[in-house]
Each structure stands twice: as structure tokens, then as C-alpha cells.
From TrEMBL:
One of its GO terms (cellular component) is membrane. Signal peptide: none annotated. The keyword Cytoplasm does not apply. GO terms for biological process: heme A biosynthetic process. This is Cytochrome c oxidase assembly protein subunit 15. It comes from the Bacteria. It is found in: Membrane. It is a multi-pass membrane protein. Pathway: Porphyrin-containing compound metabolism. It comes from Janibacter cremeus. GO terms for molecular function: metal ion binding; oxidoreductase activity.
Amino acid sequence: MSEYSAAARTWLPRLLLINLVVEVGIVLTGGLVRLTGSGLGCPTWPQCVPGSYVPTVEQAEGIHKFIEFGNRTLTGVVGIAALVLLIALYRWARDRPELILGTWVVLGGVAAQAIVGGITVRTGLNPWIVGFHFLCSMAIIGTSAWLLWRYRQSAGPTRSLLHPLVERTTWLLCTVAVVVLVLGTLVTGSGPHSGDADTPARTGFDPRTISWLHADAVMLFIGLVVAVWLGAKLTERGPGPARAWAVVLAVTLAQGLVGYVQYLTKLPEVLVLAHMFGAAALVVVIARAIVLSRTPGPLPAD
């Protein structure tokens, strides 16, 4: 790793971690908005109500206006976190263009998400827009996690620590993970937690059917995670990959357990929120495992 100043060594890891934490946090506050039926607590955008950017006493939305406004406010926090990180990288890590580019992606994603959030409100919480909003957040979280762990490695090109077949399987795993996330958003969009307690918005899919499709995709995903973990244990050419994929397997199994329990218990709000956190955690550990499955420079000697 390049010789950063003492300030860089102290603050860059913290800023990278803060950026990731707030990105996960806004997913949870967005989930809280949805689960409390507060999606239209601020019925307009960018203002909360016509003539005011903040909730007013006269609003009829009650506690919902504060929950929705709180989520909107956190958008500013994640934007500031990404901007501060970008400035810090330009100041202390100009030799890490991959980190700078990744942070630009995060900052641009946050700006785009603010617009998508406005479209969500103006379309009356259209479930397709809400689902797209969530999936975009997952992409930003994955990028933020990649930044955090890539920073800990040296600059320059990286090489895989895994057998080529295992490495190709990891990309298949990532593809299936996207399918699992998409189906998961469709499950939510087809169920009772629409985001607005008065006028639920549904995708039109049968909740039971789409839930089982989601479960089938999860089963395939678990099989791929096991395959990659075993492949890493047998072929890794350096320390780290097998342990990293073991963490992915543990989070996957925990997330699957929460998913089945929430389905069998009729989707209690606390478990739905836990499942959303699990989805974010799974994206984080997958990004981490991908980074740790590669090494800068030449491969270690066999």
C-alpha cells in the first residue's frame, strides 16, 4: 500500500466504513417507511407538502410524515458521506483511481436515488419503481463494500487466488444473487407491505407463487455458495478466500432461515425488516469475498 499520511491512514478507513454504514442504514429506514405505511407521509416531492420542505402541523399524515421525512433527510447524509470520502480520496489517495471511480459511482447513485425516490412518491408508490429503488440501493451497497475492502489491498491490477473454474462459478453465483434479490423485491411488492397503509400497491403476482419462485432461486444460490466455498478450500493459492466464502455461506443460511420464518408467520414487520438487513449484509459479504479472492501483483508461490 502507498505511504499515506498519518491523517489518511486514520481517516480513510473510517470514511469508507461510514459510507458503507449509512448506505445500509438508509435501506433500513426505507424499510421502516414501507412497513409502517409511511410511504406517502410526505405526499409531494421535493417538498414534503405544497409550500413546505418539512412536515407541518396541519398535515393529516400524523407520525407517518416524520418517518418519511426522516428517510428523506438521511438521503442528504449519505450524499455528504460519499462527497467527503471522494474529497478525501482526491487529497490522500490520488494513486488509487479505482477507489476514486468507485466513489464517483456511489455519489452518482445517491443522486439518482433521490430522483427515483421522488418518482416513487409522484407515482403513488408504484411497486415496480419501489422495487427498482431497493435494487439500486443494493448496487450502491455492493460498491461501497468493495471500496472498503479494496482499499486494504495494494494498488494495481489484481489476480485471482482461485482455480479458473471456481472463479467463473463466483460470477454465476453473483448472477443468481441478482435474480434472488429481484424475486425478493417482487415478493414484497406482491404482499401486504406496500408502503402506504391506505392504498396498497401490488404487482399483481400471486404472493404464494412468487414466494416459492424466490425460495427456489435461494436454493440454487445456496448450492452455488457451497460449491464456491468448497472450491476455494481446495484450490485457493493464498489465505483468505475460503474463509471469506464461509462467511457468505453463514449469512446466506441465516437469511434463508429468516425468510422461511417470516413467510410461515405471515410476514411480521420485525422479521421483514430483519430480512431486508440480511439482504444488505449478504451483498456486503459477497463483495468482500470477491475482493479477498484476488490479490494485487503476482500470485503467491505454490
